[in-house]
Amino acid sequence: MDEKRNYDGQELPLLDAMKEHIEQLPVPPQIDEVIRNGMQLGRQRRRHRVLTRMTSCIASLLILVLVASVRFSPAVAAYVGDIPGLRSFVQLIHFDKGLQLALENDYMQHVGLSDEHDGIKLTVDGVLADESRIIVFYTLDNMDGRKRVMNVQNVKLVNNQHTSISHGASDFGEDWVSKQGTIEFNLLDGAGIPDTLDLELKVGKDYETVANGPIWKFAIPVDKVKFEGLKETYDINQTVTVEGQRITIGTLTVYPTRIGLEVVYDSANTKKLFHFDDIRIEDEQGETFGTINNGVTASNISENRLVLYFQSNYFRKPDRLYLRANSIRALDKNKLEVQLDLNRKELLSRPDERLTLDDIGISAENGQSILVFHLKNDDPLDKDRQYSLFDSKYKDASGQSFESNMTGSTFDSFQYYIKKTNYQSPLTLTISDYPSRIYGDINLRIK
């Protein structure tokens, strides 16, 4: 983020030059000691009061910059990340402005529970929670230093059926000492924040290798007094039209860890609407809070109704809020199915000429067939974006349904794994996202 602001969201133009200069300086290994030495030097040179005042101002400014730069400067973030109590959090949430604000406002509940098996220790460092989701921060330590690939696997909550769980991959390769990660629990409607998270998980290379391995268990107490009842709700209930497609914007709920926005697509729309490219929430200062880009981005309530998730501005307390968007990825509903002749290795139907079939191969790892597609796409909006083109479910000519359990993508190539069996050709795959768009300015006043 290039824009520099204080905690009230105001610009700091007079400090920019000084901050830029200071950030180029090496940070002392013990900042407290440096400041103490500076103060002692000032006492020894009382006759130089102007110099003393200047030294004090610079020291104070340095402290301010260190605090403010957690969200701006990778170097400062790395330094703060080494301070006990903060090391588990800074780098994990650099992608989410709302979570950074939560930490700055002392919203973290520190936990510090550990469990160890076979030379691997897992520590639950802390918890962020509200009535929408719970985020658990953890650290894995390789206690005996053995070379081994480790992932967090088989995560579940005991006696709690009202959450969905997601967590990032923690594959560190064979050589690693300590790494952090997060586990996210999305609370379903009416679930409520539990008193205790009874968490169980396994640690290993993959699902097969951990099948008979030990279970890491944690009973994590949750400070409900700290987390409950913190939300702001805005009933927007306005319908907008973009290139003939009707979209109703419902209720927006601001939680400390994220914002949820209800969106309903008109069932009579001629296009399937996949995703907004640039939908965001903006305050009166022009500061934007975009969609969640590392974690759960949306919850599908029904075929045409969903909840989009944004980074939270709960701790900003803005005077005015606006919902803005300019383009939506969408495709004609009669172009959603891709038919593939397995025998001739060719596409019988496709959305447009940009999608081609490169090959049908066999996976050396698991024996599955691999459908390799090529997607030609030079739209600037899709720079560095990799598409999940197809729904996991597909069918053959007999109408029998199957499910793909693996996909992959590299630049403009997309791999879709299918069970190796006797299909009645052709196969039918359904498009779940595609680089075609509708355009129109959405600009709604929320607050």
Structural class: mainly beta
Quaternary state reads single chain
Second-tier CATH architecture of the largest domain:
Sandwich
Full CATH superfamily name of the largest domain = bacillus anthracis domain
**Which percent band covers the strand fraction?**
35-45%
Which features would summarize this protein structure in a list?
14% helix; five-stranded antiparallel beta sheet; 6 helices; 41% strand; 4 domains
Can you characterise this structure?
β20 and β21 form a beta hairpin. Residues 1-85 have low confidence and may be disordered. This protein is mainly β and 447 residues long. It has four domains: 13-80; 91-227, Sandwich (Immunoglobulin-like), CATH 2.60.40.1630; 232-329 and 437-445, Immunoglobulin-like; 334-431. Helices cover 14% and strands 41% of the residues. The strands form six sheets. A five-stranded antiparallel β-sheet has the order 1-2-3-6-5, with no helix packed on it. It has a five-stranded antiparallel β-sheet with strand order 9-10-11-16-15, with no helix packed on it. Strands 12, 13, 14, 17 and 27 form a five-stranded antiparallel β-sheet that branches. The protein has helices at residues 13-23, 31-44, 49-68, 74-80, 97-104, 224-227, and strands spanning 109-117, 120-129, 133-142, 151-157, 163-167, 178-187, 196-204, 216-221, 232-242, 245-254, 259-265, 271-276, 280-283, 288-290, 298-300, 305-310, 321-332, 337-341, 346-349, 355-362, 369-375, 390-395, 401-403, 407-410, 413-418, 427-431, 437-445. It is built from six helices and 27 strands.
